[in-house]
Design brief:
The protein has nine helices and two strands; from the N terminus they run αααββαααααα. The protein is mainly alpha-helical. It has two domains: about 70 residues, Arc Repressor Mutant, subunit A, CATH 1.10.10; about 140 residues, Up-down Bundle (Four Helix Bundle (Hemerythrin (Met), subunit A)), CATH 1.20.120. Strand 1 and strand 2 form a beta hairpin. Helix 1 crosses helix 3, helix 4 packs parallel to helix 8 and helix 4 runs antiparallel to helix 9.
Length: about 220
């Protein structure tokens, strides 16, 4: 049973990563045979992973096959709204609970981020990874394992949309400035300010999604 779960997890991560990296695009059908040959596993764990990805809204079942889809506009907005609430409270708790060593690690990460953003070109996948790591650090140091878990789940669902439809320059520099403001509030151990700065950041993301992203994705 343990091996079966492990094989299903391998298949899940393989398919998810291929979608996130753009190797499997929206509308493309999943080939169980190709994955089985690539991973050298049977089709049973692959089907289990496809069912899981279907439940998460990343794949659509059509007959006996699965293809990559994007969430509905309503689902996207609800995911971003949920993220806003969780991330703002996580930032507040992080400012209260982060210890000196964790803060030092956070500072090193932000220096690396600034160095990366100073480059002439930032690829979308690199930007998405930096964004994920920023929020992961805050969630991990919030001291609330449930908020950390739910935040990670939401980011995984949204990452595919961000990688597929956000360009590297869309919101990168604005994100960088807003992340820096949140970080400084956490560094200063100002929970209320960290909360407010994160709220503003998430509100700006939601505004961008509504005004720029959704009109591109869907025809109203």
């Amino acid at each position: 049973m343990e091996q079966k779960i492990t094989l299903s997890s391998r298949a899940y991560e393989y398919i998810y990563n291929n979608i996130a990296q753009g190797k499997l695009r929206v509308g493309q059908y999943i080939s169980e045979e190709m994955i089985a040959n690539k991973l050298k596993i049977s089709r049973t764990p692959i089907r289990e992973s496809l069912i899981a990805l279907n439940k998460e809204g990343l794949l659509e079942k059509t007959g006996r096959s699965y293809r990559v889809i994007i969430a509905s506009s309503e689902d996207l907005i609800e995911l971003y709204e949920a993220r806003k609430v969780i991330e703002a409270e996580s930032a507040r708790l992080c400012a209260l609970r982060i210890n000196r060593e964790q803060l030092s690690d956070f500072k090193k990460f932000m220096l690396d981020v600034n160095a990366t953003y100073s480059q002439s070109a930032i690829y979308a996948n690199a930007k998405a990874d930096l964004d994920d790591r920023f929020h992961e650090i805050i969630g991990r140091n919030s001291g609330n394992k449930y908020m950390e878990k739910y935040s990670q789940e939401i980011r995984r669902k949204l990452k595919i949309v961000r990688l597929t439809f956000f360009t590297a320059t869309d919101v990168s520099m604005e994100d960088s400035r807003e992340h820096e403001s949140i970080f400084q509030a956490i560094m200063s151990r100002e929970p209320s300010k960290a909360y407010e700065e994160m709220l503003k950041h998430e509100d700006n993301v939601i505004k961008y999604v509504k005004e720029e992203l959704l009109p591109t994705l869907y025809k109203f």
